[in-house]
Design a protein that fits this description.
Layout: H1 14-23, H2 32-35, H3 41-47, E1 55-63, E2 66-74, E3 84-89, H4 103-113, E4 116-120, H5 132-147, E5 154-163, H6 165-180, E6 185-191, H7 202-206, H8 215-225, E7 250-257, H9 261-273, E8 278-287, H10 298-315
Parallel strand pairs: 3-4, 3-5, 5-6, 6-7, 7-8
Antiparallel strand pairs: 1-2, 2-4
Helix pairs in contact: 4-10, 5-6
Length: 316
Amino acid sequence: MPKPADRPAGGIDPEMAAVLESLAGPAGPFSVEAARRPPVPALARLKGPPEPVDQVEDFSIDGPGGPLALRLYRPGPPGPPAPPLLVFLHGGGWVIGDLEIQDGLCRALANRAGCAVLSVDYRLAPEHPFPAAADDAWAACRWAAACGADLGVDPGRLGVAGDSAGGNLALGVALRARDGGAPNLRLCLLTCPVVDHRLDDASMTDLAEGYFLTTAKMGWYWDQYAPVGTDRSRPELSPLRADLAGLCPVVVVTAGLDPLRDQGLDLARACSDAGVDTVLMHYGGMIHGFLGFFASVGRARGALDELGRMAGQRLG
């Protein structure tokens, strides 16, 4: 696992630099309304057309706060053998996002891992602050374990994944599953995850501006999800500070030009030190959320291919 001295940011990948230039926009002021505006057309172009998947089904279940919308992606036709299932929790700082925001990434993961992917439309802050999103994520995972067979998937080969803020939720699900003894997860896959509330480490300082996600924006997201007065150091909010022993196998993906880089690297080291089966996949020259740009960036495409193969192997 990398040590702090092994963490230079390095230069940006040329294709990623072109993506970053296309995404450039005003840094603030921040507002929920501005954050939730429809994405600029350039974003759809950079993400490319969605890959075809054999089956995509939208439905809802009873969640802690009312109907909880889910979307199931199947990479093959119905029928035996039933594929494993990966519960996916999207990014967006707990403030933005729905079943569409990472539709392309879910399709790509399903195709590359050979598993079904269940995307969760959890409640958003500030209307629904912590623990609403965490409770929805947990409810979806428990439902998948109990009812997955009805969807034609194998709930005995179950994993959880999350990107950015979704990584925070996914790790929280893995901790709850460990503490409760069920469901039995085979994998916790975390890409560019938020796992600690700190805003003052080296990557947060050195990469504070200019690389898509900014440190100021990350602080604003925290204020929406866990308002001032909330104990953000509690493990449910900052799982890097939790006792990690006994977790299911963990895969952590980090990017060299991500303000969240160092907490992701620290998480991988902490999991390994706690005896958890841990894989760290670090990609220098990449920005936060780089996997979503696999259609435009060759290195992101290669990383997604590698990640899909690993997830498929881990889920069996």
